[in-house]
Amino acid sequence: MATLSVIQAGSSAPPAGAVLVVDDNEATRIALRAMLAPLGHVVVEADSGRAALRAVLAQDFAVILMDVRMPELDGYETAKLIRQRSRSELTPIIFLTAFGRDETETTTAYASGAVDFIFTPINADVLRAKVSAFVDLFAQAQELHRSLQAITDLNAALRESEVRARAVLQNVADAIVTAGTNGLIDSFNRSARRLFGYSDDEVIGRPVTLLIATSHQADFADPSPERWSLLTAKHIPAEPMETVGCRKDGSVFPMEMDMSQMTIGERTFTIGCIRDITNRKAYTEALEFMTLHDDLTGLPNRALFGDRVDRALTAADRADEPRGLLLVDLDDFREVNESLGRERGDAVLRAVAERLRGVLEDSDTVARVGGARFGILPFGDTDVESAAGIAWKVRDAFEQPYVVNGDVVDVRASIGASFFPQHGRTPAELMRRADLALQQAQRSGGGVTVVDEEPDDAIGRTLRLLGELRDGIPRDELVLHFQPKIDLATCRTVGVEALVRWQHPIGGLLMPGEFMTEAERSDLIEPLTAWVLDSALRQLRVWTDAGLDLSMAVNISARSLAHDSVLPDTIAQLTETWDIPAGKLILELTENAMIDAYAPVTLELLHAMGERLAIDDFGTGHSSLVYLQRLPIDEVKVDRSFVTDLATVPGDAVIARSTIDLAHNLGLTVVAEGVEDQAALDMLIEYGCDAAQGYLFSRACPAEELTVWLAESTFGAGRTDAPQPAV
Ligand code: C2E
Ligand code: CA
Ligand code: CA
User: Fold this and answer.
1) Ligand 1 in contact with 511 (CB < 6 A)?
2) Is the minimum distance from the CB of 694 to ligand 1 under 6 angstroms?
3) Is the CB of 676 under 6 A from ligand 1?
4) pLDDT tens digit string along 678-688?
5) What is the separation of C-alpha 459 from the centre of its chain, rounded to a whole number of angstroms?
6) How many CB atoms lie within 10 A of CB 116?
7) Does the Cβ of 700 fall within 6 Å of ligand 1?
8) Cα–Cα distance measured from residue 502 to residue 518, given in angstroms and rounded to the nearest whole number
9) What are the backbone dihedrals phi and psi of residue 22, each rounded to the nearest 5 degrees, phi first?
10) CB 394 within 8 A of CB 356
11) Which atom of ligand 1 is nearest to the CA of 560?
């Protein structure tokens, strides 16, 4: 078994960086440790490539000293795997090798990421010099990394404020003109263009006095550019000044101008905020537009939507007509944002807004009422049928994928609707009911749902359930039951599968079918999986200590294999904590989880750590074995739907038999789940199936109960210290 030890040489200062020594030869490790001792670094030892991988998962190292020749994973392979993980991609690796190896070896070494060599026999001074150099580099790199991070953060903040400033500049109702010290126009915002009728290139670089009526250029004692600059630089009026502006077409208008000054780096600007005061009303309206519309899409915002609904309801009440409202929510939009980035996520939202506007009548109100949520208030009399018609049009808007900066994004949406008067008489009531309908639509996988008269018990229950589960996990309300896995060659138990249950304080013992789907869809799956792994491995340690040689299978949800999966780190830490040797933990994943775009890297890593991988529910997904062949899989579990009725349904027998043959051809172990009768078991044995689980042997039950069963059943576990049954 791999061992890992940490030896800290007697220094009280915090370590600059840890050194990992990987060598299967204990004498060499002791020698290296002794040579490194005077440097005072933390030295971690690993006696195999696998142990090295675990160590690297557990912490960052300044440098790794790696023996080239090791059994199983050799130094090069280990280095390659270490390099695959972005956290350790750049960790320097020094290979320890005998002097005078040939050229090809050196090439392989560099290809697998070596940065240096130390030849044996090792010269202690050379070793210390190299290690010190790398540890110093590591410390510097960390410092640099911290500074870079600070700069990146600062830059991002600056960029954001700049973008915001520019957006404000472009969108404020005021005309904003900036000029340099020479009195020449530098920039001209959208309102200025509207107010004066000039386009950018007609004014930029020309004197600001162009915008002042000739009659009033005397307001500026000297209309020359120098004068303007003087005025702006020295005598900026504190109060807004009133003067007369001149448009491109020669018409004049009274205007109010605020001036201020700004210095950016070496340059000084004068900023003029100009308002046409003949039309204060237009100005107020523009401001109103700003507060009642959504910046991003230009659509009415939630406040305005509420106001329109309110008015519509008042009118409907008077006319005794029905009204309806629809909520459209983009499915999994958080993922779009996460994978494409905020900016492109915003572009998708704008495109959606545009399409929604496009498919609806001008008289219908479309508003953005939340992050990825739009509200629709159809114009006039609206009943369920007409709302359904609108819902169909809305679905049209999502038929074609969206193309944003060359990315094709498939956006799907769910729709919920509610109606006046049957669902409520106020905007708030209707919004709430439409929201419940929307959640129902989302739960049933998208589409349209109209809330009906009955209260939505299902939704309420789900929400409550999730809240309770969130509290229940830390309160240890989850329990594991275990089901034995019987080797069909020996008819003895070789492993168990951990199956989670929830001891609900009121609801009693809940099966996974009653809460897993919700947990998988929420972020609760992460703490749940961590809890299951911890408890399962703890129990495995108990059984191992009792002399039982068992493997432990744990079910892993697709979501746990997401891109920045913490799963390998969790597993590395827990197998360490419970001292579980590699190969004893089996991770069961469904085909679809395996096909998940990000999974291969995580799977490779788990496999390299020595954990075994099984495909669960095999035969129910859509994958081809050819694809699965490329993944590092050890075991296939034939889904119980083909096994339970094996003896009576001929089709099932064909599927089971061909799956077993195919899997064997690919070198995989086959486990049949759901074996309920002797007839099915006999057929599986005849087909050469390797192992089986099912009610015929035992249901999943609490650990104590299974411990008794393991000792008493003829299918129980052979003790490691007892003679093994004959094969
Ligand atoms: P699964 O992984 O396919 O687990 C086997 C299920 O079949 C278990 O149901 C087990 O009790 C049941 N079973 C075992 N033998 C027989 C049999 O002979 N006949 C029949 N009809 N059924 C049998 P359970 O415990 O209700 O689990 C259901 C599913 O919930 C599991 O299917 C698994 O996908 C999921 N699950 C359970 N525990 C966990 C967990 O800790 N994490 C995750 N991610 N999923 C879990
Ligand atoms: Ca399973
Ligand atoms: Ca299964």
Assistant:
1) yes
2) yes
3) yes
4) 999 999 999 99
5) 25
6) 15
7) yes
8) 13
9) -115, 115
10) yes
11) 44
